Amino acid sequence: MYKFFIITGSLSGMLSVMIGAFGAHALKSTLEATNRLTTFETAVKYQFYHSLALILLGLLMIQFQHKAFTISGYGFIIGILIFSGSLYALSLTGYTKLGAITPLGGLAFIIGWAAFAWGSMKSLH
User: What pTM was estimated for this model as a whole?
Assistant: First the structure.
């Protein structure tokens, strides 16, 4: 499982850099004109931070196997897909009803961090 989280985190991190660069160059004027640049940047930041968290989690799982770490990894992945994904879609389309699912992604992040903490408390003596 650790390999999956390290690889997924690495690919997601790469994708966040690519999306961020695309937004900063090709989409910047459009996003600024529609007042959605900040929303787009938030999506990129959360994707990048949680990609790093996935990599760290995977590295930790090489040494420590705890079910909470698996829950944490899936929480981060679901959070990236729902939180960042809905913000990307909202930024690009302006369809504000997508914002209704964004908090579900935030909840997945929170569950991921709580599980990370729980697994760490149980594994790191």
Answer: 0.94
